[in-house]
């Protein structure tokens, strides 16, 4: 088959809820619908932040759909507005804090079908 379709109903079964928000996986090797990338949708609740972490085997690109984020990348900070895209190099620790009036909603993509995740010690 030359394509894989993952319906919105299926995506709900891949949702992970956390105290800071949620992550819904849409494509990955583990899901069986992508070999060379991982794709997801992340929501960070207003005033919350995800844990500082890194991905040692892949780059991460995130595209902010709505909300406003303060993203710490290494020891630098950048503010993201809707429509902004940030690419984080493999091995760089980072995290995001939702600083807008609404929850931050973004698409995230990784350059590997098996995204690794390591919290900063």
Number of strands: 11
Helix content: under 10%
Strand content: over 45%
**CATH fold node name:** Jelly Rolls
Distance between the termini: 42 Å
How much is the radius of gyration in Å? Answer: 14 Å
Strand order of the largest sheet: 1-2-3-10-5-8
Number of helices, where a helix is a run of at least 4 consecutive DSSP H or I residues: 1
- CATH homologous superfamily? Jelly Rolls
Low-confidence stretches: none
Number of domains: 1
Coarse morphology:
globular
Query: Which series of helices and strands comes N to C?
Result: HEEEEEEEEEEE
CATH class: Mainly Beta
Q: Biggest sheet: strands, sense, closure?
A: 6 strands, antiparallel
Assembly type of the chains comes to single chain
Structural class: mainly beta
Q: What is the name of the CATH architecture?
A: Sandwich
List the helices and strands and how they pair.
Layout: H1 8-11, E1 15-18, E2 21-27, E3 38-44, E4 53-54, E5 60-66, E6 69-73, E7 76-80, E8 85-88, E9 94-98, E10 104-110, E11 118-119
Antiparallel strand pairs: 1-2, 2-3, 3-10, 4-11, 5-8, 5-10, 6-7, 6-9
What can you see in these coordinates?
- The mean pLDDT is 91.
- The chain has one domain: Jelly Rolls, CATH 2.60.120.
- The chain is globular and about 40 Å long.
- It is mainly β and 121 residues long.
- Strand 1 and strand 2 form a beta hairpin.
- It has a six-stranded antiparallel sheet with strand order 1-2-3-10-5-8, with no helix packed on it. The chain has a three-stranded antiparallel sheet with strand order 7-6-9, with no helix packed on it.
- It starts with 7 loop residues before the first helix and ends with a strand.
- The chain is 3% helix and 45% strand.
